[in-house]
Design brief:
4-stranded antiparallel beta sheet; 44% strand; WD40/YVTN_repeat-like_dom_sf; Exo-alpha-sialidase
């Protein structure tokens, strides 16, 4: 499932429907809400696309389609798409000129809208990546350690450590980070990933 906030009460999502009936589409494609999640409408790709990562970078929407294994980009909010490179990515982030993706082999970057990617040799292995402002990259490693670059990936600094692998990660801004762990606990940092506190813990956690 993919999910991202693109404006006040406006979210984009993808995944699988809860209705397992024969009439239900196996893939939602891209769906949108403008009322904070009360109602949803289909934007594109119903029955075909399953976007596991969705990210708006300035005016370009990027998404990873797990069905085709390819990055896609859209200039009209997801109504129409251009197909990019095929990469086994887990997460993505973009800024005005580049798009970054996390892969099992390491962090990669594209300067041509996701058509081609190259390895970022100095980057640590990341499970997720965010770019809250230009040239800033933040993400956890597979062990939960937070890594930050403030020069577009040329150099990296280690931060605090989450209690384990992360299933979802977002940077509200450079200082406020949110991460979900495998047991459903949501951790929050207000100092750029140096320290984390529990923001939510499931009842059975």
């Amino acid at each position: 499932m993919g999910f991202t906030v693109v404006g006040p009460k406006t979210f984009l999502a993808s995944g699988h429907p809860g209705d397992a009936s024969a009439d239900a589409s196996p893939h939602l494609g891209l769906i949108r809400t403008t009322d904070g999640g009360r109602t949803w409408t289909t934007v594109s790709g119903e029955g075909v696309a399953d976007f596991h990562a969705i990210q708006l970078a300035v005016e370009t929407l990027y998404a990873y389609d797990s069905q085709s294994g390819q990055l896609r980009r859209s200039a009209d909010g997801g109504e129409t798409w251009m197909t990019g490179a095929e990469e086994p990515m887990n997460d993505l982030a973009g800024d005005r000129a580049r798009v970054f993706v996390t892969t099992p082999q390491g962090l990669k970057v594209s300067g041509n809208g996701g058509m081609e990617f190259e390895d970022m040799a100095n980057a640590p292995l990341l499970s997720h990546v965010e770019s809250p402002v230009e040239d800033v990259l933040i993400g956890p490693g597979p062990d939960g350690r937070i890594h930050t670059s403030r020069d577009g990936g040329k150099s990296w600094q280690d931060g605090g450590k989450l209690p384990g692998p992360v299933t979802a990660f977002t940077a509200v801004d450079v200082q406020r980070l949110l991460a979900a762990t495998e047991d459903g606990t949501v951790m929050e940092s207000k100092d750029g990933g140096k320290n984390f506190a529990v923001a939510f813990r499931p009842a059975n956690g």
